[in-house]
Amino acid sequence: MSHVASASDQVVTEGIAYQGHWGLHRSPFDNVPDPQFYVPSAKHETALARVLYGIHARKGIVMLTGEIGSGKTLLSRAAILKLPPTRYEVGLLSNPTMPDEEFLGEILFQLGLDPHGTRAEQLRRLNEQLLANHQRGVDTVVVVDEAQAIEQDRLFEELRLLSNFQMNDRFLITIVLLGQPELRERIARIPQLAQRVAIHHHIEFLDRRETNAYIRARLAAAGCVRPIFSSSAVSSIFIRTGGVCRLINSLCDWCLYAGSAAGVRQVRRALVERVVDELFHHRDHSGAWGLS
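The chain above was modelled as a monomer; its predicted structure follows.
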């Protein structure tokens, strides 16, 4: 049995961590939206700037799209951290797949309001909160993650109606929609909503140079003080992942596990290729792979 396969077995059966072997303080490639691991690539910084501009300028509705694994959720958490709590009240809907009758109540709940009552009562309560925030110099922001998963189009209409809360010269609420590319298609089929989207930005995948910077930045955030991945390993990782952040994380994580089990001091191309061959499959025509 190969070193890579043995590493997989050890991880599953013994829960062996690799941080000590590589001199890391924590796992650098967990697929969770931890803002400490936000990497300011040119593509992500442009997207972040567009989202923050939409919020700061009170543009009403902002939409950020990207393919699966492109880093939308992590970017949104980084954006929220840049909003001072003394100036912004932020509600985050991380899972909008809920019954229609619960959707508005969930928005209220995420803004710290009582979610119960009739729809008229909920809207009145929300309006009062928006006006109170305005009077004390606080902007209200609602972030809807995975917005393409909203099941009923009428809930998009609900979001559009929320943008009707406004003064003569400004919106009282900013709605940030995050989603996969099909979100654009769904909103395009609702002209009344599409016309309200003031800012739309699409995140592209990382290129080879950005992939290298991404890997090294995440390692540095975990306490890395030496080059763990060789240049050829990084090139292989880019080819196999296509610059998809989530896939980069998964492949790098398994390479660190496998390298630790094998006792190597650096991850090289051969190890990357063995991990891909033995632990992953479902490759597309470009050579990139996915979990299946």
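The CA atoms of residues 105 and 115 lie 4 Å apart.
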